[in-house]
Amino acid sequence: MLILKTKTNTNILNLEAMNALRNKVQLIGNAGKDPEVKTFEGGRKLATISIATSESYTNDKGEKITDTQWHNLVAWGKTAEIIEKYVVKGNQFAVEGKLTHRSYDDKNGEKRYVAEVVVSDVLLLGSK
Fold it and tell me: What is the CATH number of domain 13-126?
């Protein structure tokens, strides 16, 4: 247990609980496309899909503004099989996983950077 003291109060943080929250992503949104699934030797599957998350607010002029963010998802094994079987473009679903970054060289030799969520859990919420 770690104790942090400030002028106004004492905060006690349970480091074990904080470690459980480290690099944890939770998203609820809609599938932007049908999943792309690859099957490797031995039958292990990889599913990739994008999810759109949206937030709405009213601006100073009284207009409703919707801000949509797109996130790339990667799932392996049984999680990939669930996504392949049940998620189609437009479906609402939730995921939990960890944020990862990688780079690759494109066909022109330029280095590209990608942020992805490696999905550990998926929850099917309904269809659009």
Answer: 2.40.50.140
